[in-house]
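Pilot study result, target chain (271 residues):
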Amino acid sequence: MTAGARRPLRAFGFAGLCVLSLACGCGMSYGPQEGGGEGPGGRDQPLALKPEEELKVGRKAYKEVMEDVHDRLLPTNTPEERRVSQVLGRLVKASEIPDLQKEINLRLQGYSFEWEAHVVREKQINAFCLPAGKIFVYTGIFDVTGSDDDLLATVMSHEIAHALAHHASERLAREQASGNPFTKLSYSRFQESEADHIGVFLMTFAGYEPRKSVEFWELMHKASQNRQRPPEILSDHPSDMTRIRALSKWAEDARAGKIAYDKQRTGPAGQ
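Predicted structure:
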């Protein structure tokens, strides 16, 4: 997620958590199981890497990134580092909720995640998460989020979602299958949308305010209004306004799902 070269989205089709079925103790519905596949939302999702291979790739990438940024890393005892680690901890805990895993249809069996957060001293507005869970947040992000952890959770939940959904492995599989540049751009936008969609549910179930995801992208849009961008169809990033429209709906879906989940846990069936 980089200002000017961010990894954002396109409207994508989870229908949101089904409040009625959850409140009745019948589980949550994340929308139609398109194709009956194993990917998020039940979609078909080819993967190039086995779980052990994805972990190996993530570790190798982590070593390379650390070699590149080691002289710009903030110490672990700094307020920024502690803050990012605390947000990560809450988001990871939310990702481990069985009902949420099931309804997003995350493919996690056999996979290992070595969650760890680092803050890089860099003016660029950027954050990324490597396969298997190492996340890097650039200090430029704080120019947008300020001290608001809900805004920071928007960024981090999106990046974590990429790892949970095995997007790097999927990109590799699809690139091996098709060299069409327009197809690659389309799938990149699709994955960004999916990461936003998964992320807004993660942050909500972690106790953060989902509407802040909309506010974050409104701030990003305002900050980049004077920047020249290609048309959305020629970009691997959907437009800010596309993200804002989609997140406005998904934030309400996530809020309703969390309320229903909490009622299920505290009602007669959960006692």
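One observation from the pilot: Residues 40-262 form one domain. A full batch analysis is planned for the follow-on phase.
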